[in-house]
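User: Please predict the structure of the protein below. I'd like the answer in structure-token form so I can feed it into my own downstream comparison script.

Assistant: Understood. Taking the following sequence of 168 residues as input:
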Amino acid sequence: MTDTGPERMEAFQARGVAQGKAFDEQCRLVLQGLGFWVNDRPFKVTEVGIEIDAEIKARSGRPYWCEFKGSWHGSRPGSRRTDTVKKALADALLLHVAPVDYPPVLLITSHLPIEGRSGAQMIRTALESGALKDVICLNEPRDMERLRRLAADGPERALEGQEKLFEG
């Protein structure tokens, strides 16, 4: 007997939740390994009506808020799904335009959007506007180097190398 209808959708959603939790755990371990302090669970920002995946602090004590978007399965993992990018950027934009001064937002992902697609353009616009501080792909050495510098040196030097973000 094959899964059809609601059972198949429930199984699909359950796999997505499990993959999201696994990616969340991986992000926290990577960040801690680079020297960031990392809070242990997502938290709500009730004044804005959103939830943020993590607060991290560089060795200097400077805080950043992170959105984790990733998985290793499916045809459009990580930030290759436009709806996934929209959700992360909506949170970053709400924090950016809020009257309170919130920490800068980092998008940490398993896969970058493909250059020329709408997800890549949305991220570029968010970066240029200042709503998003950086996007880091855990599978890209240049991104991991920027993240390492952010942990150690602060934001000015860390963003060197941000010019080429997306896969072609």
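That's the full token string. Residues 90 and 163 are 22 Å apart (CA to CA).
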